[in-house]
Amino acid sequence: MTDSGSQPSEDAVRWARLTDKQRACLDLLLEHQTSKQIARRLDISKQAVDLRLTTARDILGAANRAEAALRYARLKQTYDRIPCDAIILPEEPRLVPSDFPNGELAAMGLQHSASHTEQPVAVGSPFKGLWRHDHPGRNRVWIMATMLVVLILLILTGLTIGETLTRLISG
User: Fold this and answer.
1) Which of 69, 112, 126, 132 is deepest in the core (most CB within 10 A)?
2) Mean model confidence pLDDT for the chain
3) 11, 17 Cβ separation under 8 angstroms
């Protein structure tokens, strides 16, 4: 019976009656393979292929191999679909940060996004996230520019202190 409570269609019954071995032969028949080529690919005898195709042709109600292939192709499009229900599919795994004893954040394992939705709270040095390699390009430029300005200020401060000390000593 189908979902509507009626009897299954004749096509559904035909599809259900085909065996996996018959379907394998019919799949290769759809690729325009001869019985001999099908036999080689499936590692069976030519007579076994012919028997499977004849039985499948009778099940499908076809007059010849070509008609059986056409009917099988039509049934395959209808009934050979992988059912997919988005409700039962697992969520995409993602990397989540994990705190290590040394205080650095690192992506350690895969977990479902539903199990770890809040952002980790940074504890410790305010600069510990500065050396990450996943900063966007614009942020990297700003970080480098800031470091250059700080370095120039340190050098100028050192030179000023040195000059002041030299004047005091030579005085």
Assistant:
1) 69
2) 79
3) no
